Amino acid sequence: MKRNLIFALLCVCSLLVFGQDKAKSDREIQMHYGRSSCAIKGGEEGKMYVAIIKSGHSMKEVVATTVKFLDQYGFVNAKEVKINEIDESASEYVVPFCFVQTVFHASMREMLPVALFGNLRFAFNDDGSVMIVVQDLKSDYLAVKTSKQSNKAAYDKFVEELVISNIANSFMSKVVVWANTSPEERKNFYKKAHEYLSSEVDRINVYNAMVQAGDAWWMDAASILAYLETHSMPGGNYKAKWVKSSVIPEERLIEISEKRWDKQVRRNFDTIFKMLAELLEGEIIGIQEDGTLTWTVVDGLLVPTNSKQQKKYLKEKKSFYDVE
């Protein structure tokens, strides 16, 4: 264990000091670049993720419950949502959100935090179900100061997160697996999921403390490009060309790779959807991704639409709620 810890510390130290040979650069911009899979497509035409929840509640009740739930973690701002002004005769309602994705381990490197902005669109169907749609995604990347930090305590906590991520090579293990057998075990799922989301907020608060101290910066693609074009760092020219020719015109999400989406972002939203279904006294009857139905109800279980996976789930009597 001690050997692993030493190796992890060396990896993290290498990450944080990389680029210091050229003093003109004062912030660390280490990102996967060069391939479209390194930054998936965002914006209006990009990634869209949907939970279809069967609930008997009105539009105001659904929006109010969702907003109250997400506000406790800081993912939406309840003060900006005028619940009383919602028109029940309308078929849709949109709420902006910001969900920061914490450090993620990917191929021998920790991918730094990303603030994922977007909209939650509530679309109500005639059968009483509501589609909660994650859409219009944009990302801000956390660039970290390379030396002489002002808030040492926050910076040390950030380094600790990088070390733990490197050792654990996992972001949430089995804490958000729904034990699909009894109400008591489902309560335990919500407790574990709440603890997980609360711990994510603790990490996000560390990032914000670093930003307030001037030890880190939230940067969108345009500001990253401007920085790369005016500061010297290893690989800076190639990164700048990629951001300018691909990321900005194609509205790609910096540091949200396909793997990160699969292993972190999607699972985060799945956890939220499961919790929302319970709060809305309803059930998830479908999941869509990029316009394609990926999970549907068969024999009372929410299972993959992929025939091979569906057969396995039905045989084992597993459902969407049991996904690790």
Task: Break the fold down into its secondary structure elements and pairings.
Blueprint: H1 2-17, E1 27-28, E2 49-54, H2 59-71, E3 92-101, E4 104-106, E5 109-111, E6 114-124, E7 129-145, H3 152-168, H4 183-212, E8 216-219, H5 221-230, H6 236-247, H7 258-279, E9 283-289, E10 292-298, E11 301-304, H8 307-316
Antiparallel strand pairs: 1-7, 2-7, 2-9, 3-6, 4-5, 6-7, 7-8, 9-10, 10-11
Descriptive notes:
This protein is α+β, with helices and mostly antiparallel strands and 324 residues long. It has helices spanning 2-17, 59-71, 152-168, 183-212, 221-230, 236-247, 258-279, 307-316; strands at residues 27-28, 49-54, 92-101, 104-106, 109-111, 114-124, 129-145, 216-219, 283-289, 292-298, 301-304. The strands form two sheets. Strands 1, 2, 3, 6, 7, 8, 9, 10 and 11 form a nine-stranded antiparallel β-sheet that branches. Helix 1 (2-17) crosses helix 3. Residues 1-23 and 170-175 have low confidence and may be disordered.
- Beta fraction: 15-25%
Q: What does the main sheet amount to?
A: 9 strands, antiparallel
Number of helices: 8
Low-confidence stretches are: 1-23, 170-175
Number of distinct beta strands:
11
Question: CA-to-CA gap between the ends?
Answer: 25 Å
Topology pattern, helix = H, strand = E = HEEHEEEEEHHEHHHEEEH
Keywords summarizing the entry:
40% helix; two-stranded antiparallel ribbon; globular; disordered N terminus; 8 helices; alpha+beta; 324 residues; 11 strands; nine-stranded antiparallel sheet
